[in-house]
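Help wanted!
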Amino acid sequence: MSTRHVVIVGSGPAGLTAALYAARANLQPLVIEGLEAGGQLMLTTMVENFPGYRDGVLGPDLMAEMRAQAGRFGAEIVQGNVTLVDTRVRPFVVRTSEAEYSARALIIATGASARMLGLPSERTLMGHGVSTCATCDGYFFRGQEIAVVGGGDSAMEEAIFLTKFASKVTVVHRRDALRASKIMQDKARANSNIAWLLDTEVEEIQDTGKGAVTAMVVRNSKTGARAVVPVSGVFVAIGHTPNTSLLKGQLEMDANGYIVTHDGVQTTVPGVFACGDVQDHVYRQAITAAGTGCMAALDAERYLET
Amino acid sequence: MAADNVQTLTDGNFDETVLKSGGPVLVDFWAEWCGPCKRLAPTIDALAGDYAGRVTIGKLNVDENPNTAFKFNVRGIPALLLFKGGQLVDQVVGLQPKENIKQVIDRHL
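Answered by r_m:
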């Protein structure tokens, strides 16, 4: 097994931009796509804030373009889910269930995945009314009443999208103020098919016995009053957690598991760089992820020259 | 787009191909607008190769064939439903690594 110049773990905007720059720098990068290949944009519909697309671009189409562009300059992109990363040895080792790779520089672009409520019933009913992907599953709720849990931009976007199918979408948020940007809040507030349950937490999703969502039990966090709200679907959009479990104890992370970067996108291990949402819980945009992906490739190039 | 050994299933041929089949049949419920379904497609193709002659593997477009999806209460895709002897015996919902899907299939071989 020959040692690579650089292995990139992850294939969202950060990983593929890193691949594009590394390929153009003649570093023959290998990208390991990961299970959620293409990243979070694969779950979105129209992206209207990526510069250069004045009419918007579909998330999956944008990722196909980025992938093809990186490939055009010689990036090698392989399927596979990374099961082990060792940054304590040189060269670094990355293992998937099919193969093992070694690399002199490593770019971590594993992103973040949807967070769940943590209710046992949520797991049981996943795919039977509980979903984290409105664009995938909205179709199944035509003419029905459903709920979106969350108060951020993604929750607003999902709620608005779901009104195309559902007769009524109730947004459930545990605080009274939404986290979403003003433009997204205004869009959602203006939609007459969206109802609001604020200061409210979901305690349980029913009915695991039937194997289908029939209602949710909610509790008002100010008054403590409980209510049963009949819905046939619950879409969870309460944010993301970084995909860093394979790197625990190897790189410095913050309290929430995000990789800490310094001096550009260097991690606490020389030769290991991190880009995109795995190291950014503040901006979390496709364009910032792509920007840090570029930085990671340039930093890696400089590191390999020394 | 599906590989040669992946069957295209429809509301029309589902009974004949899946429910009346003696052997195990794995059905991938998918749609064009589902990003994770597209990510899963190469895995399904690979599984069709791995299990050729032992397990029938088919894809059902839920957009064009809503009745079958409704009948089996599929409300999230990608969803993989495993049938044996005309009965639904197991299912996996959401994007999964190939090993997880293999484990589910192997339980019923």
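OP: Thanks! One thing I noticed: The interface with chain A takes residues 31, 33-39, 42-43, 62-63, 69, 73-79, 91, 93-99 of chain B (CB under 8 Å).
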